Amino acid sequence: MNHRPNSLHMSDIAHSMHPYTNMRLHEEKGPMIMAEGNGARVTDSEGKEYIEGLAGLWSVAVGFSETRLADAAYAQLKRLPYYHSFAHKAHEPSIRLAEKLVEMTPEGLNRVFFTNSGSEANDTVVKMAWFLNNGLGRPEKKKFLSRTKAYHGITIASGSLTGLAGNQKDFDLPAIPVTHLSCPHFWRYGEEGETEAEFTARLLKELEDTIIAEGPETIAAFIGEPVMGAGGVMTPPEGYWPGVVEICHKYDILVVSDEVINGFGRTGARFGCEKYGFTPDILVTSKQLTSSYMPLAAIVVNDKVYNAIADNTAKLGNFGHGFTGTGHPVSCAVGLENLNIIEERDLMGNAKRLEPLFQDGLRAFADHPLIGEIRGVGLIAGLEMADKKTKQPFGKPGTVAAKVVALAAEEGLICRNVYDTVALCPPLIVTEDDIREIHTRLGRALDRALEWAK
Ligand code: PLP
């Protein structure tokens, strides 16, 4: 590691506070500084090139050197670099992107509200649900249902919906009324002798029992990621999502599909809800929306949600919510161009076409002694480092997965350890050769980790 005086490394150690980082360890270890990107690859400040196996943070669909997005941003910066959407103001990029999102999302989702991040979007969803229920004269209908190991962000409300101890401990979360139901991960939580269908039935019974016990009149919404991402890449058991939606709608509970990772082809379908056969009342998207070239998230709601909110704004005279950056013109211009590229180059189709190569190649590691389960769909996958029989991690939780990720970086592959799982989520532009290279580099890292663990 480069610890030269006056280097970027030393400056970072002296001045920066990093998210998701042990800050004391960082003072010793210093940063890995990324200098440039090209396609599915990035190069660090030492000149070492990596395949970005996690597309940044599950997000850079079109790769790291798409000049059309740079051009779209520059053109918008010159024409109208900023304008807001408060109090009836509007501008072309946010109008066009809202129109595009309504066209792309499932039938019935007709109105769009923009925020700067996925966390802000989910906080906004909570406030929308509260606002509309107050407007409908049912002020007690406020609770959210979420799941253990869910990731919905880190702000006060979204961080409460998140179901991971690491995001809540010492942050005094949850801070809003939320009940976390069981994580729908069959391999880990299925009981001895239970079939996948029985597991689904048990989880759906838990959902309905919880609604009845807490009172349907107290529950506003159920939120979930179709495929759970940052909690460890968990695909849902057969029949889970249609069952959840049926029960929620029976009790007039809104269903929110958090597609911040799932959206725009990641699962091999356009949206995760389409992959798993349900239509939510509210769909949240971000990340691949702009390929993260600019910060942007969008909430797309159905008419029932929109009308209840709109009626209450008419009653109160205002929707007292919104950000300076809501519908930022540069972010929206980049988002629009990004979605055009995704469609023109059929990148969602690319994810579907490459799914067998990507997933089967990973499943070829199934017998590896360090791997408990390999799971995933489309171009997203997780390899859980655990004993195959006991399903317990080896040694201190998270250690082996962190080692695999560190060795993979040495082999020229960036991936991410989320707890005991090594997560992969490459850019949608990857080629067959890139995928084979991901498998090769990961295989070397796994073998080196096994040597290290002995
Ligand atoms: N929802 C999901 C499903 C996510 O994966 C994330 C981020 O990873 C978020 C919400 C929060 O988004 P942000 O980091 O932009 O606040």
TrEMBL record:
Assigned keywords, A-Z: Aminotransferase, Pyridoxal phosphate, Transferase
UniProt-listed Pfam families: Aminotran_3
Protein name per the record: Aspartate aminotransferase family protein
CDD domains according to UniProt: OAT_like
Keyword Lyase attributed: no
InterPro entries for this protein: Aminotrans_3, Aminotrans_3_PPA_site, PyrdxlP-dep_Trfase, PyrdxlP-dep_Trfase_major, PyrdxlP-dep_Trfase_small
Essential cofactor(s): pyridoxal 5'-phosphate
Segment forming the signal sequence: none
MF GO annotations: transaminase activity
Family assignment from sequence similarity: Belongs to the class-III pyridoxal-phosphate-dependent aminotransferase family.
Keyword Calcium set for record: no
Source domain of life: Bacteria
